[in-house]
Each structure stands twice: as structure tokens, then as C-alpha cells.
Automatic annotation (TrEMBL):
It comes from Corynebacterium humireducens. One of its GO terms (biological process) is quinolinate catabolic process. GO terms for molecular function: nicotinate-nucleotide diphosphorylase (carboxylating) activity. It is an enzyme of class 2 (transferase). Hexamer formed by 3 homodimers. PANTHER family: NICOTINATE-NUCLEOTIDE PYROPHOSPHORYLASE [CARBOXYLATING]. Residues 124-291 form the Quinolinate phosphoribosyl transferase C-terminal domain. Pfam families: QRPTase_C (PF01729), QRPTase_N (PF02749). Keywords: Glycosyltransferase, Pyridine nucleotide biosynthesis, Transferase. Pathway: Cofactor biosynthesis; NAD(+) biosynthesis; nicotinate D-ribonucleotide from quinolinate: step 1/1. It catalyses: nicotinate beta-D-ribonucleotide + CO2 + diphosphate = quinolinate + 5-phospho-alpha-D-ribose 1-diphosphate + 2 H(+). Its EC number is 2.4.2.19. InterPro entries: Aldolase_TIM, NadC, NadC/ModD, Nicotinate_pribotase-like_C, Quinolinate_PRibosylTase_N_sf, Quinolinate_PRibosylTrfase_C, Quinolinate_PRibosylTrfase_N. This is Nicotinate-nucleotide pyrophosphorylase [carboxylating].
């Protein structure tokens, strides 16, 4: 069977209105108890400042557009944002990421919200870039998952692509992913796969296997993609060989507790993707500061 005419991975497009809603929620957390009383008390009305966003460590910038979007909701007067290092730029300690000229009270009110988002997204891009560097030259790609923080999925997936990775599915309806619990409920990997193919023949379908025996059961059906869960590198290599012999059009994804120190070992097997859930659920923030 020829796989559906669907790309191997989707692409995320940032919706400014969705970003604005997220920012409004974040600002409400700061301002629901009243205005920024500290800035009102210490900064004269009408006072203006020039500020810089500066990197404190090496990493990759992502989400710089949030600076402007946050200030749009906070600013009581004109402001200007100069993006010095575009998204995807690798920076080092002391590098200026952006310059801002705005009302001082506005800057101080916006500071934490814009830094929370920018440091988080840049942290994801930085972590992704490290994984991409680790598998360079192997042909394998680094891919994310749905292990995202509520409300942040599209921004987090955008940050992954900014760091050089690729996205897995965006939700439950854009493509099928048959996991172990689906397999148990359906009575086996083959019944589960055939059920999805029958009901949603035009949807890209990936199915998880735990053993090489399950892989052998599925390959004659020429599935779009198979997830190799908790396989050792030698098992992944065997899976690649069997895939190449029986169903060369089937993509293979290695998943399950992968760590950066073994990324190259897995990538050299010939697998198509390494699934790295930690990119979005636990990447450390990139240390960025707002300096007057």
C-alpha cells in the first residue's frame, strides 16, 4: 500500500492572536492583584529608558517576537524593539539579543512575562540544537512529542524547529499514533494498525512496537511509520535492516529514555528519527537578562 500523501512531519505556524491570548493570561497572573506598585512608587510617570536583553550563557535564541507582543499589551506610550539576533542565532555570554526603548514603568511591568517566555523558548531551541549537533552527518533527525506544557504547545514546537529539530504530530487528530495501550485494547499490533487503516485510510499512521517480533508482524503491511520503543542501538540496527528488506518506505523512530550521550549511537543505526520528549517537558531555560 502506498503511504498517504502526507509529509513525514508537520510544520508549526505561529498565530499572533493565539500568542496574544497566552500573553494576556500571563500578564493577568502579575496584574490580577493590582498594578505594578513597586514601579509606580520608584519610577516617575513619563520616565523613559533604553534597555538591552543580554545572554548570560551560550545557546540558541527562539521566540524573540514575544518581546514586541508583550509590550503591545503593556505599553502606555510609544516603544521600539530592535531584534539584534534573529531567531535561530547562536549566542554566547554577553551577546546582545535585543534593544528596547520604552517607558520605564512599562518595561519593568513587562520584564518578567517577556523573559519567562523568551528564556523558556530559547532553552528549548538550545537543547534541540545540542541534539542536532550530536547526530550531525548521520541522516537522523531530532523530533519532539506531545509532552508539552498546557497552552504552550505551538510555541514550544516552534522553538524545536528553530533549534533545528522537526515536529511530531500537533494533536490527536492530525495523524494516528498507536501506542501500547491502544495495542492492548485492540488485541495486538496488527489488529490495531488495520483498524486505523480501515477507518482513517488517508491519515498518516505510526505504530509503537516493543519487540522485533512485533516489527516483523507489521512490516508486510507497509505502515507509514513504526516507533521502536526502548530498543537498544543493536536492536534498532536490526530493525533498520529488516525495514530496508521488507518495507523500505516505512519510516522508523527510536524512542524511550534517549539521552544526549547515546544520541550518535542511535543515529548511526540508520533510523530516521530520534524522539526526544525532554526537549519540551524539561529543557532548562536559557539565561537571559534585561539590563538598563
Amino acid at each position: 500500500m502506498t503511504p498517504p500523501d502526507t509529509p513525514a512531519f508537520p510544520t508549526v505556524e505561529i498565530d499572533p492572536e493565539a500568542v496574544d491570548r497566552l500573553i494576556a493570561t500571563a500578564l493577568d497572573e502579575d496584574l490580577t492583584y493590582g498594578p505594578d506598585i513597586t514601579s509606580r512608587a520608584t519610577v516617575p510617570s513619563g520616565h523613559r529608558s533604553e534597555a538591552r536583553i543580554v545572554s548570560r550563557q551560550s545557546g540558541t535564541i527562539a521566540g524573540l517576537f514575544v518581546v514586541d507582543r508583550v509590550l503591545r499589551q503593556v505599553a502606555t506610550s510609544e516603544f521600539r524593539v530592535e531584534e539584534v539576533t534573529p531567531d535561530g542565532t547562536r549566542v554566547g555570554p554577553g551577546d546582545v539579543v535585543a534593544r528596547i526603548e520604552a517607558g520605564t514603568r512599562d518595561l519593568l511591568t513587562a520584564e518578567r512575562t517577556l523573559l519567562n517566555l523568551l528564556t523558556h523558548l530559547s532553552g528549548i531551541a538550545s537543547a534541540t540544537a545540542r541534539w542536532v549537533d550530536a547526530v550531525e552527518g548521520t541522516g537522523a533527525q531530532i523530533r519532539d512529542s506531545r509532552k508539552t506544557l498546557p497552552g504552550l504547545r505551538l510555541l514550544q514546537k516552534y522553538a524545536v524547529t528553530t533549534g533545528g529539530g522537526v515536529n511530531h504530530r500537533l494533536g490527536l487528530g492530525d495523524r494516528a499514533l498507536i501506542k501500547d495501550n491502544h495495542v492492548v485494547a485492540a488485541g495486538g499490533v496488527l489488529p490495531a494498525f488495520l483498524a486505523v487503516r480501515e477507518q482513517f485510510p488517508d491519515k498518516w499512521c505510526e505504530i509503537e512496537v516493543d519487540t522485533l517480533e512485533q516489527l516483523d508482524e507489521l512490516l508486510p503491511e507497509q505502515p507509514d511509520e513504526i516507533l521502536l520503543d526502548n530498543f537498544e542501538p543493536w536492536m534498532v540496527q536490526m530493525a533498520v535492516q529488516r525495514r530496508d528488506a521488507v518495507s523500505p518506505g516505512t519510516l522508523l523512530e527510536a524512542s524511550g529514555g534517549l539521552t544526549l550521550d547515546v544520541a550518535a549511537d542511535y543515529a548511526r543505526t540508520g533510523v530516521d528519527y530520534l524522539a526526544v520528549g525532554s526537549l519540551t517537558h524539561s529543557a532548562p531555560a536559557l539565561d537571559l537578562g534585561l539590563d538598563f
